[in-house]
Amino acid sequence: AIMKQLREAGKAIIFITHKLREVKEVADKITVIRLGKIVGEASPKSTANELASMMVGRAVDLDVEKGAPKLGNTTFKISGLSAWNHAGTQVLDDVNLEIREGEILVIAGVQGNGQTELTEAIIGMHGRTAGSIELDGQQLIGKNVKQVLDLGVGFVPEDRTEDGLVAEFTIAENLMLDRSDRKPFAKGLSLQLAFLKKFAQEKLQQFDIRAQGIESKASQLSGGNQQKVVLARELSRDLRLLVASQPTRGLDVGSIEFVHEQIVATRDSGIPVLIVATELDEATQLGDRIAVMYKGKVVGVVPSSTSRSVLGQMMAGISA
């Protein structure tokens, strides 16, 4: 609304974004840049798929392609989970959730309503907690981060630079961060450098990580490519649960398509998946069910077919 007011006041605006809904909403003229070059101009009347294809240089499917879930047993369960921050303020209030094998549960809500604390509690990063978090019948409460990861939890954090990467380590080193003490990355006290090189080069290509090579430092990468390194590492482990907080943040539409495909493939392999999403389009397309959080509580758990208007009301604290 402010941008439109500025335009009506005679101001010129250059708006840089990869969010196509916003582009079509506010733009009068669209210029598309790919790999540092202008590749074309488009009209706001162009479809999102047309714009995405120009951005990536090939046809892109913006809709998440997934069939009906093939549900297995309930292997991940949160019961009566509460948590408090360092100031003693309660940030999670009696959270109860279950995820079955072969299912994607999306946590939706306005940023700052307990989503971050929920993922931190699961991974063992949040100190003051009460309640139960079980994976394959094993209690995660009381375990440290490495112990949780060793149980087969893949974790894509909300802040990749703070919690997902070591900036001064190379891409190859970041790809084996918590597995450098075991096979196949290590044998006894020795790193298996030949294996690491092969593994890192495969992930560089598979995830389209744009860098000079596997020896490039994480700090030298763009935000989107840093996120791809995190995703490549977490999706390549022996998973029993995938927890991903805003996994497509900072990625271009082509990379988003790829990440969505990988998440759906993880779900289709029988792994329970927990995704934190801040955009409703992603939540409704990616999730099999959606749990909405407000002020540290789960307002309700609803099917992904639930309308945007109902989800919006739930995000404002109105019960389903």
Description:
With 320 residues, the protein is of the alpha/beta class. Helix content is 33%, strand content 25%. The chain is built from 12 helices and 14 strands. The strands form 4 sheets. Strands 8-11-12-5-13-14 form a 6-stranded mixed beta sheet, sandwiched between helices. It has a 4-stranded antiparallel beta sheet with strand order 4-3-6-7, covered by helices on one side. The chain has a two-stranded antiparallel sheet with strand order 1-2. A hairpin with a 5-residue loop joins strand 3 and strand 4. The longest helix has 16 residues. It is globular, with a radius of gyration of 21 Å. It starts with a helix and ends in a 5-residue tail after the last helix.
List the topology elements.
Blueprint: H1 2-8, H2 20-26, E1 30-34, E2 37-42, H3 48-56, E3 74-84, E4 90-100, E5 104-108, H4 115-123, E6 128-135, E7 138-139, H5 145-150, E8 153-156, H6 160-164, H7 171-174, E9 186-187, E10 190-191, H8 193-206, H9 223-235, E11 241-245, H10 253-268, E12 273-277, H11 280-286, E13 289-294, E14 297-303, H12 308-315
Parallel strand pairs: 5-12, 5-13, 8-11, 11-12
Antiparallel strand pairs: 1-2, 3-4, 3-6, 6-7, 9-10, 13-14
